[in-house]
Amino acid sequence: MQKRSYGSVTVFSLDRPQVEAALQTLAETLRQREEVLAVVCFGSWARGEAGIGSDVDLLVVLRASEQPFLKRIDAYLPATFPVDLDLFPYTLDEIRNGQPLAQTALQTGRVLWSRIPLNTLCDDAP
After folding, report:
1. Which of 23, 40, 52, 78 could cysteine-pair with 59, CB 3.0–4.6 Å?
2. Is residue 48 situated within a structural domain?
3. Is the pTM of this model over 0.70?
4. In the predicted structure, residue 126 carries a pLDDT above the cut 50
5. Keyword Transferase on this protein (predicted)?
6. For residues 48 and 4, which has the higher predicted lDDT (pLDDT)?
7. Residue 3 above 80 pLDDT?
8. How far apart are CA 57 and CA 23, in angstroms?
């Protein structure tokens, strides 16, 4: 997000190309991890409706994990990202068991990268 100051008024603008480049870089980084099976962007960013203050929602599909959900998040977050990032690292079992947020992400999201056919996880997946 870029910021310009005009006297007492500050104007923010969303740098879409910068965010898209960061998304692709993150997807490529996650691709290097054997346990990561797919990366799906969903929410306002995936729908093309993101504006100032919007975050990026990212589903990371994992083969498996011994860690509880909340402890997994830090393992996949990048050190920096141009906007707020909400990352959801769910396992195959959690998704197959109907985890609602993951199912919504699969049905409505934009696949950034996948090593598995996502239609096996959700009837309406992209």
Report:
1. 40
2. yes
3. yes
4. no
5. yes
6. 48
7. no
8. 10
Q: Is residue 10 part of a domain?
A: no
Helix/strand/coil (H/E/C) assignment for every residue in the chain: CEEEEECCEEEEECCHHHHHHHHHHHHHHHHCCCCEEEEEEECHHHHCCCCCCCCEEEEEEECCCCCCHHHHHHHHCCCCCCCCEEEEEEEHHHHHCCCHHHHHHHHHCEEEEECCCHHHCCCCCC
Number of structural domains the chain divides into:
1
Burial state string for 8-38 with b = 16 or more CB within 10 A and e = fewer than 16: eeeeeebeeeebeebbeebbeebbeeeebbb
Q: Is residue 125 part of a domain?
A: no
Q: Name the one residue in this structure whose structure tokens are 């909400």.
A: 86
Which pair of tokens denotes residue 2? 């870029």
The answer to whether residue 99 sits within a structural domain is yes
84 touches 76 (CB < 8 A): no
